[in-house]
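Tutorial sheet, problem 5. The two components below are modelled jointly, 578 residues in total.
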Amino acid sequence: MTYTFGLDTFGDRNSEPGGTPLSHAQTIRNVVEEGVFAEQAGVDFFGIGEHHTEHFPMPAADTVLAAIAARTARIRLGSAVTVLSSDDPVRVFQRYSTINAISGGRAEVILGRGSSIESFPLFGYDLADYEELFEEKATLFAELLKGGPVTWEGKTRAPLLNQDVVPHTESGPFPAWIGVGGNPQSVIRAARLGFGLALAIIGGPPARFAAYSQLFQRALEKFGRPPLPVLVHSPGHVAPTDQQAKAEFWPHWRDIIALIAPERGFAIPTEESFERETGPDGALYVGSPETVARKIATNLRALGATRFDLKYGMPGLTHEQLMTNIELYGHQVIPHARELLGELVASPQRCPSDNEAAEQAHA
Amino acid sequence: MTEPIRLAVLGAGHVGPVIARLAIKAGYPVAIATSGDPEEISLIAELLIPGAQARWAADAVADADVVVLAIPLHRFADIHPGLLSDKLVIDAMNYWPTSDGLLTAFENGGSSEIVARRLPGSTVVKALNHIGYHDLEDRARPAGAPDRRAAGVAGDDPEAAAAIAGMLGRIGYDAVRLGSLQAGRALEPGGAVFGAVLPLPEFERAVRADARSLA
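Model answer (C-alpha cells):
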C-alpha cells in the first residue's frame, strides 16, 4: 500500500509574534513560501482552500498555487476545497488545467462546499440552491475532466455544444475529489461521478467515518467503477512537544471557532472539548510528531484511506510557527507514519508517480 | 397510540440516518425515504442504518404512525400536505438563514408553527432539531445514566407531544415538554438551547429564561 501525505491551508491570516495581524498580502506571500518549503520538507501534496473572509483572505487559491508551481518540481498542488457551486466549472477546469501545465502534471482539485458559505452572496448565488448547483456543476466537471469536446445542458450555466475546452492536459485527467463532511448522499455522488472521496473530519471521533469509506467502495462497485482512493482532511498543529503544540494552537482555535460558531452551528470550544478533540478519539491532530504520526496511522487504517492532508495553521499563528509545523510534519511525522503503516518504501522523498494509481483510477 | 410506533424518516442526508439509527436501536420499526427512488439510498440504508427499510416516501408514510421531517427546510415546499395528513409529524428541520440561505416564507414566526400551518391535516411536534447530528448520536444515554442529557419537545397537541416525549426517552434523552409550538422557538437557531447538549436542570433553566418561548 502506498500512502500520500499532504498539507492544506485556508490562507489563515498570520500574526507577528506579538499578536499584531499581518496584512493579507503578506499572508499570501507567506503561503507561497510555505508551499515551497513543504516540498523541501518532503510533503507530497500542498492544498489551498478557497475562503473569502478577513481571517482567511484566500479567494484565488489557484493563483497562489501557480506561484508555488513555478518554484517547485515535485510536490502535487491542488484546491482544498474549490467551492464549485458558486464558480463556473469550465473556468475551474481551465484554471487547474493551467496549473497542471505550469507544474508539469502536478495539479489536483477537491470540489465541495467546505464550511465556506461567503461565496454565495458574493457571487450572487442563493444558498437554498446549493444542492442543484453542486450536482449540476460536479456532473459537468466530470465531463470536462475527460478531455474531449463537451456537450452539456443544464439550468445553472450556458449550454455547451461539442465545445473544445482548453488547455488540454498532457496525460489525461488530473486527480479530482469530492469533499464530504457527513452527508452520505454526497458519498454516493462522488462514486457515481467517479471522483475520489475526501472526508473532511473536523470534529468528533474519526472512526465514525469508516462506514462512509465502506459506503463509497460499495457504491463504486454498484456503479461499475474501479476502486478509488479515500483521503482524510483534518485540522492540526505540530510542535516539538504536545504541550507546546496545544499551547500555541488552543487560543487561536478557540477564538476562530467562537467567531464562526453562530453561523456554522459549531459548539463553542471549551478546554474540555479541546482535550477530547486532541485525544485519540478526537478530530484534531495537535501535538508532537510522535503523537500526530500515531493518530494519522491509526485513523488511515481505520478509515481505509491512503492519504492524509493536515490542515495546518489558524489565524493568529505566526509564519515561523507554521514553518516549524511544516518542517516537523515533513521530516518526522510523515516518515514515522509511513513506518507505522508498514509501508515498504522508507524514503521521505516521494516522486509524483506516487499518485499514479489514483490517476489511473480517475481516468 | 399502540406500541410499537412505526417511524418513517424523510431525508437521508446528515440528520435522517442518525435519527433512524437511534430509533432502530430503541426498538422502533423504521423506514427511510427521500424524494426519489429508494434504490438510490439502498446502500445507505444497508451500511449506515442496518435494520431500516429504504422505501418510496408515499409507502413509508402510509405505513407509519410517526413521520420525521429531516430534509432541508427549503425542500419542505416540495412535500404535498396530503401526503402527511392524519399523521403525527416530528419537525426536525431548522430555519437557519446564515447557514442555509434566506426563505421569505419562514422570515416571520417560529418555523414549526409555519410548517404546522402548511400541514392542517397533520399533528406537528417540534423535536430532534436542536442537537447537532453528531452529538445526537454520541450523547444518547439510557434512562438513569449519570451523563444523560435533555432534549426538547414542543407541540400544541398534548397527547402527541407526550408520545414523542416517550420516544425521546427511549432513544436516549430526558424529554422536556414545551407547552406549544410557539414555546418551541427556544429550540430554534438563536434560541436558548440550540446546539447545546445540556443536563435536564440546565436545559429547563435555559428554556425558562428564553424570552422567545414566552412570547
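Marking note: Chain B touches chain A at residues 12-14, 17, 34, 40-41, 43-44, 47-48, 72, 74, 96, 98-103, 132-135, 138, 189, 195-196 (CB under 8 Å). Full credit if you identified this.
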